[in-house]
Amino acid sequence: MTMLRQPAAPPAGEDGGAEKPRPRRLRPAGRRDIALLWFAIPGLAAMLLFHYIPLLGNIIAFQDYQPFIGITHSPWSGLDNFGVIFNGDDQFLRALVNTLELTLIQVVFVFPVPIVLALLLNSLVGERVKKAVQNVLYLPHFLSWVVIVALFQQMLGNTGMLNLFLSAHDLGTWSIIGNPDMFKALLTSQVIWKDAGWGTILFLAALSRVDSNLYEASAMDGASRWRQTWHVTLPALRGLVILLLILRLGDALSVGFEQILLQQTAVGLDNSEVLDTYVFNNGLVGGQWGVAAAVGLVKGAVGVLLVLGANKVAHLFGEEGVYRS
Amino acid sequence: MTTLSPTRPERGGKPRGTYSAIPGESAGSPPWRALKSLLLLVCVLLVVLPFLAIISTSIADPAQITEAGGFVLWPDNPTLASYTALLSGGLVSKAMMVSVGVTVAGTALSLITSIMLAYGLSRPGSFGHKPILMLLLMSLLFVPGVIPTYLMVRQLGLINSYWSLILPTMINAFNVIVLRSFFMGIPRELIDAARIDGASEWSILTRIVLPLSKASIGVIGLFYAVTYWNAFFNALLFMNDASKWPMQLVLRTYVINNASLSGGQLDVAAGAPVPPAQSLQAAILILSIVPIVVVYPFVQRHMNKGVMIGAVKG
């Protein structure tokens, strides 16, 4: 209701015109407010059932969970399940190292691509061409990882188009798919192919807000195009870049779960096991429910801490970050 | 994404101009322009060419495929043999039906519940508004994880049920927040006027708010539909019964893992040649993309606005 946000405004409608404005806290919840609550209930129920109640399921991280006797009867095991983390189990460490490596690779090689692409689009083409290019480049974002992995296989696989072309011209073959040494490069190029275009949306939006007077003024002062980019365009993107980096940090321990799971059998676990696949392979496939839940729990907690911490750092540097405190 | 601040007043969610009218930097000298155009052209080709190649292979003549050694860039005698073999009643037709059914039902349910939730939260200061919004926002930060979700679905007895592909992903907090921003951008006077005329909340929603937010609902609907259509992992977890598989699992098994389709899974007349594996695989791949490509043009012109309102509000 409007007046709830402006206590000084004269009351209107069903509250009765003669009443004096009361302090907000004392105002009884009107019928219309209750009506609004009813609207929220189905969605809220789904939210609770599949989001908040499962959060409690993490309790099996502290149990020796047996699927057949359930959470209520499984024996408690204290922190035993966390042993793989603290004692540095080889398999776990391998997953951790691969995860961090992939995150680092993606921040360095994937993150800047949409920025460059947005600058390219922004500084160049006519409206129509730009729209057309955007629509083509956005499309892969909407495809599933299964489709993308399948496409890459058909193009670059050992019997895919590239290798057929190479061998038809006596150029030998180039093993890309299923080659453990190429795996991280392959993952990275798939991520770029899928989401680089989509990533430009935010940067283009930010670029559209740059005051054109700044360009004119800088041109007056004799700035070259490069200097315009450096001193006007890039500073305009700074806040957004920091924001996206913070959000990326929250996902630092989750890299391409579906994408990796789909291609894991072809390259073996050494190069492809990440924390998410570790949880899946050990928990749901291997039956070590408690251990997998423990790893998942720590992973989630670290992610939350990273976001909160990074946000704090952003505030210290005077940036807005994800939310205002 | 950026709207993790429930206390921030969020009125006037209109973007300050789309980026259609970017003054921008000067485009540079002709050689630079040519180079930039070339770079963009390469990007576009990198996206388009794989699709063209796959389509060609899916409709190519078997003889040409054998001659080319597997893949065809341009079909000489196009034939729809692989599509008819896949779509006339076998495994793939079933999977298409499952995927379409789950997508349609799921999108409808998601949109209804999300619109209602977003509308319920669209009036700051209303009773219970703050804690519910908080709950919604927190769900973006705290994710339950694979194993607890699996246990929940199993506990509810939804394993091998189509509901397992719908219910766990029915509400997406981010989409609800985007819808909410749209609803809050609708002029308050309009809603107050309707209320003075005696309209109930339900008729305000259906007669005023919804007609004014068609574009945003279209975009959010596309996001939900894509999620359902693309759902692979949930299907992998919850659908042990191969006869209930959606397209994504079929695609994984027969294209990525290269399992061969047996005669019983195809519908080929007795004595007729079975289309080559390459064109069958290409056809499955195309079939699992087609619905997205069909819906995409209807929504893409609203896409920028939809994404930006959610992400970088003015």
From TrEMBL, chain A:
Matches recorded under Gene3D superfamilies: MetI-like
Secretion signal span: none
PROSITE patterns: ABC_TM1 (PS50928)
Domain of life, per lineage: Bacteria
Record key words, sorted: ATP-binding, Cell membrane, Membrane, Nucleotide-binding, Transmembrane, Transmembrane helix, Transport
Protein family membership: Belongs to the binding-protein-dependent transport system permease family.
Protein's name in the database: Polysaccharide ABC transporter ATP-binding protein
From TrEMBL, chain B:
Signal peptide: none
Residues spanning the membrane: 38-60, 96-120, 132-153, 165-183, 204-229, 280-299
Location of region: Disordered: 1-24
Domain ABC transmembrane type-1: 96-298
Pfam families documented for this protein: BPD_transp_1
Any single GO BP term: transmembrane transport
Swiss-Prot/TrEMBL keywords: Cell membrane, Membrane, Transmembrane, Transmembrane helix, Transport
Subcellular location: Cell membrane
SUPFAM superfamilies noted in UniProt: MetI-like
Membrane topology: Multi-pass membrane protein
Gene Ontology CC: plasma membrane
Coiled coil segments of this chain: none
Main location: membrane
PANTHER family linked to this entry: ABC TRANSPORTER PERMEASE PROTEIN MG189-RELATED-RELATED, POLYGALACTURONAN_RHAMNOGALACTURONAN TRANSPORT SYSTEM PERMEASE PROTEIN YTCP
Similarity annotation: Belongs to the binding-protein-dependent transport system permease family.
Protein name: ABC transporter permease
Organism: Streptomyces tsukubensis
Taxonomic lineage from the root: Bacteria, Bacillati, Actinomycetota, Actinomycetes, Kitasatosporales
